[in-house]
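Hi W.,

Here's what went into the run:
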Amino acid sequence: MQDKDFRLVLVPLLSSMMITAGACYSRTDSTDPNDEYSRVCVDRESGKRVEDDRCGTGHTGHGAGVGAFYAWYFLSGGGYRTGALPPVGAPVRGGTYTLPQGARVGNDPANASSTRRGGFGSSSRGRVGG
Amino acid sequence: MLRLQKNPRWNWKREVESLGLIWNTLENREPYWDESAYYRFTETQIEQIEEATAELQRLCLEAGQHIVDKDLFGRLGIPAAAVPFIRRAWDEEPPALLHGRFDLAYDGIHPPKMLEYNADTPTALLEAAVIQWAWKESLFPEADQFNSIHERLIRKWKDLRARFKSNVVHFAHVDDDSGEDTMTVAYLRDTAQQAGLDTVGIVVDDIGWDTESGRFVDQVGLPIDTLFKLYPWEWLVKEAFAENIWESYDRTVWLEPIWKMLWSNKGILAILWELFPGHRNLLEARLGNPGRMKDYVKKPLLAREGANISLVVHGDEVLSTAGDYGEEGFVYQQWYPIPEHAGRYPVFGSWIVDGEPAGLGIREGGLITGNQSHFVPHIFD
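Here's what came out:
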């Protein structure tokens, strides 16, 4: 008889998020995808901004803390340039956790001029299945 | 082999969702995860399924070598640009989970028959590896289940970890509303993390290409050393970044490797029949036309979830499904009348991990299994 220890971390974490908030990565249709966005790191439990390095690289796993969950929150506009973003510790509102497809995050270092995106994914009709 | 009824646990929905199965109900509001029934096998029957699975894996290895040796890529509709990389990957054997799911027809008596092999992006994984085991432990703790998928995945990740360039594996998936792809990848990430790896989840659309370094990068600009993708190769190789795949081939480990295109293509069914005609675990199959078969299933070489399939009996089309597939051509496979149970037709998904039989997941549906099928658990004793 086999003895299993699942010790799943991500699966129940993501599943509870998806049940309460709808699909984690669902795309919004109501926003012009060509708008620029600013990102801030948010404690999802409190809904307040935290230091950006809490979201860090998005890595989880070996050595990462379990229990807290931080996520990037996207606010329409170039607030990162004008200093109009909520300060650390303040609640965030009026934005989204799901970035419209093709939208650009101005204060995301990944958007270096040498990086192109969107070259994969065009064949998808929803889920993959198989 | 018996199909028995059982009252679902009163809190079954909460139980399976707590383990990640948030896609548990179909569009018609019937349960996808259906614990109102279960299959009960004998140990001999499980051994029969296991033996057939191991044998089919062996046959597919030979068939893959045959395709490479005889340059049969064109017969399978594989793009020419992918061929040199498939050859290299086949010969060099880069890191791979070597996982997949054989879909088998089985009546509990005669040798199981291969319907197809999902060797590139197999799903129904969480159900088979985790959900049905938890169901069994709850309701049949003394019984056994053909299921060592979970521990085999962890063991394989541990083996692969030593071969990876870094300790970080990126996991790419489609942005799917149902959550099935997202959670399937989350589960695989969990198994990788239990093996000591660090993981990053990324939606396929967000994969970037850094022109300065000539590398694929993730959503925060970090280079991707190892990329697991729940996204089929046949889509990647025709998309805008296809050229970048070739350019960075030596700098990126892909899971699964590109040689899986040989097996996930249903043309492999015809190649297998050509090499092993009459084999006990195979059905007759031909490329391009049905030959002398009067009862057959016509399937696109590349398709998903039962799309664009036609069932022909006595030369007449009796059933067909819609879809947008078929551009690469079709394979014609002898129709095998799957035994019906309670108005449903079961397909036995026999899992392979690291090239070895690992477990069984059963889906029931219509004569053509689509994405509105039901997953039914099993035990054996």
